Structure formats: C-alpha cells, structure tokens
Structure to design on (89 residues):
C-alpha cells in the first residue's frame, strides 16, 4: 500500500493506492488518470481528463520517517534550467 499524491493545476490531493511501491512510472500515470476521472481523488474530479494529462509529469517515490511509502506525481519545474536573461523584456 502506498499513498499517491497528485498535483494538477495548482491542486494537490492524496489517494491511498493498493499497489506495489515499485510499480513503473507509466502505470502510475495511467492509474492517476483513471482515479482523477472517476472522482476517486478528493478535490480532483475531472471526468474529461485526457489520457495523456500526466505524460510529462515526474514520478517521485519517497519513504516517510515512519516508513510510509509515498508516490508523488507532479509537473516538472524549471529549477536549475538555463534561462535567457533577456526573456520577459
């Protein structure tokens, strides 16, 4: 059993996931689409969510100090990326 935390459009919610913690990233993304569409994730019910909504998301696996297995599905962030210093002018 693991907790899947999904962040989408500025919202974040947990879902108790009865699955192996080492399940591959593609399956985590697919499961996330299904549970968000079905309304299984409290606060993230999007019945028209596209199949590829999480294709470019990062899957992080972390263990809490108490041993809880947590899987985070989140958008990629630009930290550490090369940025054009003249952009935005």
């Amino acid at each position: 059993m693991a907790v899947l935390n999904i962040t989408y459009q500025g919202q974040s919610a947990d879902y108790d996931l009865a699955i192996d913690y080492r399940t591959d990233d593609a399956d985590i993304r697919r499961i996330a689409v299904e549970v968000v569409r079905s309304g299984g994730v409290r606060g993230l019910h999007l019945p028209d969510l596209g199949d590829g909504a999480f294709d470019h998301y990062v899957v992080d696996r972390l263990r809490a100090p108490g041993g809880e297995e947590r899987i985070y599905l989140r958008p990629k962030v630009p930290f550490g990326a090369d940025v054009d210093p003249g952009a935005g002018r």
The two ends are 49 Å apart (CA to CA).
